[in-house]
Design a protein that fits this description.
This protein has 1 helix and 6 strands; from the N terminus they run βββαβββ. By secondary structure, the chain is mainly β.
Amino acid sequence: MVGRGHPPGHTGAMSNYQGPATLIAGAAQLEVQATLSGSRAGQAEEWGGSAQTDGSSDDFFAALAQDSAKLRLPDGREGDVVAKRTAIGSGRLKISGSGPSPF
């Protein structure tokens, strides 16, 4: 059923993931706690969310500035992401997925 305010073809299909993940940029890896959600409208899929680090991740952010990033879940599934700090020193990241979600 198509809900009010949704584009034609919107199925309302949604998926979520909350738990451990690894952000990877080049050879650098960073363990995070991720909160992600995704939705599908026809063939289009959007996903993203946030990730929390322990805050001691300056080396990772240097690598992230130089390379593309991936998010890997504990079962090995991966997705391409853009990860940006929400505030320097906070350890919190905004995650925007690209392509198929890993969850």
